[in-house]
Write a structure and sequence with these properties.
alpha+beta, about 120 residues, 2 helices, single chain, Arm-DNA-bind_5, three-stranded antiparallel beta sheet, about 35% helix
């Protein structure tokens, strides 16, 4: 009998929320983790100028101090997300509760004094 393997989809996306622009003109940087049909969205606690944001690349454009800071923050977040995801996958099972644990792990590791915001 032929064995059917289940393929898991995994994606990390960073975007800005232009609808909630702050008084200083900057926008909050948001993140979205998608695994199979589960989605977790979170704040990256970083602000970026919407004129320097490249939505297609998910990065700030340029080599300004602001852009470099944003890149470092996003790279660190993405490394941690991928590392934790692969450690969960190593167990062989994955469900929505594990997706939530991935988000909580990142939130408390990156921002230990912040409240947790999870939206499924």
């Amino acid at each position: 009998m032929k064995e059917i393997s289940k393929r898991s989809t995994f994606a990390v996306l960073f975007y800005i929320n232009k609808a909630k622009r702050k008084k200083n003109g900057l926008c909050l940087l948001m993140g979205r983790i998608t695994i199979d049909a589960g989605i977790v969205q979170f704040r990256a606690h970083t602000e970026v100028n919407p004129q320097t944001w490249d939505a297609k690349a998910g990065r700030a454009v340029g080599k300004t101090k602001e852009a470099v800071t944003v890149h470092k923050t996003l790279d660190k977040l993405e490394r941690q997300i991928r590392s934790h995801y692969f450690s969960i996958i190593w167990t062989g099972t994955f469900n929505k509760r594990m997706l939530h644990s991935l988000f909580v792990f990142l939130t408390f590791d990156f921002y230990p004094h912040e409240s947790v915001f999870v939206r499924y």
